[in-house]
Amino acid sequence: MTPSYSLAIHGGAGTILKSEMSPEKEVAYTKALREALDAGEVILKKGGSSVDAVIAAVSSMEDCPLFNAGRGAVFNAVGGHEMDASIMDGSNRMAGGAAGISGIKNPICLARDIMDKSGHVLLIGEGAMAFADAQGYERMPADYFHDAFRYAQWKDVQGTDAMQLDHTVKDRKFGTVGAVALDQQGHLAAATSTGGMTNKKFGRVGDSPVIGAGTYAYDLTCAVSCTGSGEFFLRGVVAYDVSCLMEYKGMTLQAACDEVIQRRLMEIEGDGGLIAVDALGNIALPFNTEGMYRASVKAGQEVFVGIYG
User: Fold this and answer.
1) Which of 31, 72, 190, 281 is the most exposed place for a label (fewest CB within 10 A)?
2) Digit-coded pLDDT (tens) for 225-249
3) pLDDT by residue (tens digit) across 75-123?
4) Considering its fold, how many domains does the chain have in total?
């Protein structure tokens, strides 16, 4: 029997217009998406776990300053970086999330350690950092996260009440990253990581580290990772809603995703998208914005990479 697996990734959704994208930038994003997809697929090809695959794919994007996660995280109101991430294992519905953390090169790896080693699901701020220290994480210097484009974004709104999402017209460097996978053993996993909003205050946390809102995985239904206006994804419990529609209404993956992104989310004026894979390996990549950085691959099939709507 031919080995079967599926993998999808996203690098943010929003106002992504071909008319605003230089050829060089388009090539750079396409290359970065392909590298992240390859990092996850090589694990799935060898029979590795979906959890390992999504960690590898998301880590690759966290290491790339093009995306608002890890190294490319945006600046908060005091000129620092507060990052969030989460992961969920569909085989046992174990999950881990970290919110409001700083100086961690790969927040998604910390989320996994929270899942595997803390006995908890979500750790925040100083407590999450104390846990990271106990696990031996290196704290990266501030200049590791300093990106000139991100800094200019922040200076533009510094000292005001304005907050820029990673997908607005004014802020064209989009961001939240995620991955979903089905491995050869039939297990699903999802992972999401973000730097949040430029100039965010008050310890703001979006949907990315919250299980059920920005990330969800269950072997009987699907694995989901979201990107967009986090407040709306929190209010809509979007990732879990997709799974619920499949489990309780018998919807297909695509129908459930379209119902949530194209109707329910838009009813509350939410914008963004998600990536999802189901227990059969079907992939859905819906979004209600002008574009979404995305890529996917299934065993034995050609790689898909997309940016625009």
Assistant:
1) 31
2) 999 999 999 999 999 999 999 999 9
3) 766 767 889 999 999 999 999 999 999 999 999 999 999 999 999 999 9
4) 1
Residue owning tokens 């379209």: 258
Predicted TM-score (pTM) of this structure:
0.93
Instruction: Write down the catalytic residue from 176, 194, 221, 227.
Output: 176
- Write out the residue range of the structural domain in which residue 237 sits: 6-308
Q: Give Cα 169 distance to the centre of its chain.
A: 20
Q: Which of 223, 182, 218, 188 is nearest to 41 (CA)?
A: 182
Residue 1: inside a domain: no
2 is catalytic: no
Neighbour order of strands in the sheet with 283-284: 215-217, 222-228, 272-278, 283-284
Query: Where do we find the tokens 């994480």?
Result: 137
